[in-house]
Design brief:
binds zinc ion; Rossmann fold; 4 domains; Signal recognition particle alu RNA binding heterodimer, srp9/1; 6-stranded mixed β-sheet; Helicase, Ruva Protein, domain 3; binds adenosine-5'-diphosphate; binds magnesium ion
Length: 613
């Protein structure tokens, strides 16, 4: 349990990875997980967001209002869920594919020791799981005989364009769809062919679902919602049947919107040669979808809006005229967009008059709309906890730290651990300080949060659409700084597992530099997209020789970064020790404080909230 998992959280790393994945996401990295995953404290809104995103595999609701969600990575999250809330959430969870169990004991079990409680909980889950599986197969049996069309009842959407901040061009594009839905006959009379399909793409949390709902809300038409992953079935033919039934049902309610989330689950490129069953099934489903879309030509009044964060892997056939011919691309909001989104969500809580949302927006580069909503909610929770009358600037700061770094955990570290962590984090910080290409340090801390014993958070000063090689190399060196500092302070025998997360992250960055971004002279400007290799064809699979060469080049890049870190920390050994000492004393330091220490200036008062740099 007490495995050392200090790590450096670097914005750049994940931003880089996210860029590679076609979007900008917030950085977040964890150290190695310990054997029995601990439960992370979470909030109702965070759990709901996870459930909404389909990230929760199991939800257990205990008596006295706690819920524990297990996400698809096996991580556990606990939140307070008073009964009316938990009932609603449980329904949502079940609808989003989670196994839901209610436990009549309070969490931890009264009168049990922890292990028994766990065992009981496990059994309850197991029984619930078996029950659910039985139900699942029963329903599927019905589907196979084609007797039941299952599409959740449409909902009336209360969302309007006014609830979607920014995205003005996207809203304009969708206005046409709204007008069509309001009066399909007007368009039909003139012989106009309004697009039957709109594809929305963009990173998670950028408001795809929200915007689709807003279209329905503006037009005042029913909103049917399904997820592409619902169609991916084990039995051949089920998915296609389901698509047919779904369209038939939507047509009856026309004009309406049929929203297909995660269309990539069905709409991935067809390989042509694949013959395995799951593949064939998906292709049948996709073909049926295409057939249905083509049957829409006669202005049936149904507009299909599909959403994906992987538009790059969609089958081209989906994008042909008459199908998803309109493409709306959503992006992670820029500074102005973030301020607007914050304003929309701040309307729902009482915000102190001294809070400058523009400043908050500046301190949250890379945040998606969903994360900004989460930030406002977490800030309101922090304010309530602190007994404030209104949400204050410090509450936003607390919330941001919590979102960026996870909740604080205490009672984990003895003095030895703290010293090692302080040196380790100071190593990251001092290397970052002396590499101009690195993003400025936002904060360094040795307060354990989430899975990490400490961390250094850097935030970019502006939104940057592309990452330079100099910056990536700086990130690699900063990542090495923790381990190098441990070596220098305690000797090679005393280095710890604390660098696991750093090493993992550095490897990912270096690998992408070599295989995707053409930044290795030896391997050249070639994409070796092994990760996206198609298991059913041999597309994207590399030769052994190439793999060896890639590994060697990745190793060389990391070795170079290690050398850079050694040089910097040898040169500035005094700063390393001073920052480590200050961390031991204060536990957390702002970027400005670290800069002051390295200049030899004594520490002044705490910096204002949201200083970046
Ligand atoms: P996606 O479908 O792209 O993953 P969602 O539409 O589910 O994202 O967004 C999740 C939540 O984030 C929304 O319900 C909303 O509260 C918030 N959000 C996202 N984008 C915006 C935006 N542009 N304006 C206001 N809120 C937003
Ligand atoms: Zn580290
Ligand atoms: Mg969505």
């Amino acid at each position: 349990m007490s495995k050392r998992t200090t790590l450096l959280a670097v914005f750049a790393a994940l931003a880089a990875l996210a860029l590679a994945a076609g979007g900008t996401v917030l950085y977040r990295s964890f150290g190695t997980a310990s054997a029995a995953p601990p439960v992370a404290e979470s909030s109702f809104s965070a759990l709901r967001a996870m459930i909404g995103d389909g990230r929760v595999a199991e939800l257990t609701v205990y008596a006295h209002g706690t819920g524990v969600a297990v996400d698809r990575d096996g991580k556990r999250h606990r939140a307070l869920l008073p009964p009316p809330v938990s009932a609603r959430l449980a329904e949502e969870a079940a609808a989003n594919g989670a196994a839901v169990a209610f436990v009549s004991e309070p969490e931890g079990g009264s009168g049990f020791d922890g292990d028994t409680a766990l065992a009981v909980g496990g059994n309850v889950l197991l029984i619930a799981g078996i029950g659910l599986a039985a139900w699942f197969f029963a329903v599927k049996g019905g589907m196979r005989t084609g007797t039941k069309a299952r599409l959740a009842a449409p909902s009336e959407s209360l969302v309007r364009f006014g609830d979607v901040a920014g995205c003005d061009n996207e809203k304009m594009e969708l206005m046409e769809v709204v007008e069509f839905l309001k009066d399909p006959r007007r368009f039909a009379r003139l012989g106009a062919c309004v697009p039957a399909g709109v594809l929305m793409s963009g990173p998670p949390g950028t408001g795809k679902t929200l915007l689709a709902r807003a279209v329905a809300g503006e037009a005042g038409v029913p909103f049917f919602s399904v997820s592409g992953s619902d169609f991916v079935e084990m039995f051949v033919g089920v998915g296609a049947g389901r698509v047919r039934a779904m369209f038939a049902q939507a047509k009856k309610k026309a004009p309406c919107i049929l929203f297909i989330d995660e269309i990539d689950a069905v709409g991935r490129q067809r390989s042509g040669s694949g013959s395995r069953a799951p593949h064939e099934e998906r292709e049948q489903t996709l073909n049926q979808l295409l057939v249905e879309m083509d049957g829409f030509k006669a202005n049936s009044g149904v507009v299909v809006i599909a959403a994906t964060n992987r538009a790059d892997i969609l089958d081209e056939a989906l994008l042909r005229p008459g199908r998803f011919s309109r493409h709306v691309i959503l992006q992670t909001p820029d500074l102005a967009g973030r301020a607007k989104i914050l304003a929309v969500h701040a309307r729902k809580v009482t915000v102190g008059s001294e809070v400058d949302l523009h400043l908050v927006a500046r301190g949250t580069p890379g945040f998606s709309g969903a994360q900004l909503m989460h930030l406002v909610n977490e800030a309101a929770i922090a304010a309530a906890r602190a007994g404030h009358d209104a949400v204050a600037a410090v509450d936003f700061e607390t919330a941001k730290d919590r979102i960026l770094m996870g909740a604080e955990r205490s009672g984990l570290m003895n003095d030895d651990d703290r010293r090692l962590t302080a040196i380790h984090e100071a190593g990251h910080a001092v290397v970052a300080l002396h590499l101009p290409a690195s993003d400025p340090i936002h904060k360094a801390t040795i307060v354990p949060r989430g899975q990490a014993l400490g961390m250094v958070v850097r935030l970019p000063e502006r939104d940057s659409p592309a990452l330079r090689r100099s910056r990536l190399k700086a990130d690699l060196a900063v990542a090495m700084g923790g381990r190098v500092a441990e070596e220098m302070a305690f000797g090679p025998e005393e280095i710890s597992t604390g660098a696991a997360g750093d090493i993992q992250m550095a490897t990912r960055i270096a690998r992408k530099m070599v295989t995707e971004w053409g930044m290795s002279r030896r391997l050249g400007l070639v994409a070796f997209s092994g990760q996206h290799a198609d298991p059913y064809t041999s597309e994207g699979v590399r030769s052994d020789d190439t793999s060896r060469e890639i590994d060697a080049e990745v190793r060389a890049m990391i070795a170079e970064a290690h050398d850079t870190a050694v040089t910097i920390l040898r040169t500035y050994r005094g700063e390393l020790d001073a920052v480590a000492a200050a961390l031991l004393e204060r536990e957390s330091l702002s970027g400005a404080e670290i800069a002051a220490i390295s200049r030899g200036t004594p520490l002044g008062l705490d910096q204002a909230a949201f200083t970046v740099g």
